[in-house]
Design brief:
Order of helices and strands: HHEHHEEEEEH
Number of strands: 6
CATH class: Mainly Alpha
Oligomer: single chain
Number of helices: 5
CATH superfamily: Winged helix-like DNA-binding domain superfamily/Winged helix DNA-binding domain
Radius of gyration: 16 Å
Bound molecules: zinc ion
Mean pLDDT: 92
Length: about 140
């Protein structure tokens, strides 16, 4: 399957109409280890205006295609979700590693996180793990 077919399939599965701008956003986010901020997307995406981009990101987040994670500056960054995220539930309970040097946020979804068992009477709605440190790129400088 070509990239574009894959993205079209993804949009269809989430009942989103195929638009050039949506495909472009997907192509920028897929296969990245790090999350991308809206300003960074804006600077590389070409002629997609800010409002359109914002709407695309909100729609993708709502549909379970991307998840939002804040970096150390408090800026929202976006990363592609695992396949099991959907419109009603996100399952992005992987570790988000914040590099204190380059400020990149890494989705470390290959790590197994320990199961969390809450005391009786608590109902879990959202769980997030984050870590701060140096990424391999910055460490080897
Ligand atoms: Zn998700
Ligand atoms: Zn770094
Ligand atoms: Zn993530």
């Amino acid at each position: 399957m070509s990239y574009n077919q894959h993205f079209e399939h993804l949009l269809k599965r989430h009942q989103l109409k195929r638009t050039e701008a949506r495909l472009r956003v997907l192509s920028l986010l897929v296969n990245k280890k790090t999350a991308t901020s809206q300003p960074d997307l804006e600077s590389v995406i070409g002629d997609v205006d800010r409002v359109t981009l914002y709407r695309i990101l909100s729609a993708f987040e709502e549909k379970g295609i991307i998840h939002k994670v804040f970096d150390l500056n408090g800026t929202a960054n976006y990363a592609i979700c695992a396949d099991d995220c959907d419109e009603h539930h996100h399952h992005d309970e992987h570790l988000h590693f914040n590099c204190s040097n380059c400020k990149n946020v890494y989705c470390l979804d290959e790590l197994d996180m320990p199961p969390i068992v809450l005391p009786a009477g608590f109902k879990l709605e959202k769980l997030s793990f984050s870590a701060v440190g140096l990424c391999p790129k910055c460490l080897n400088k």
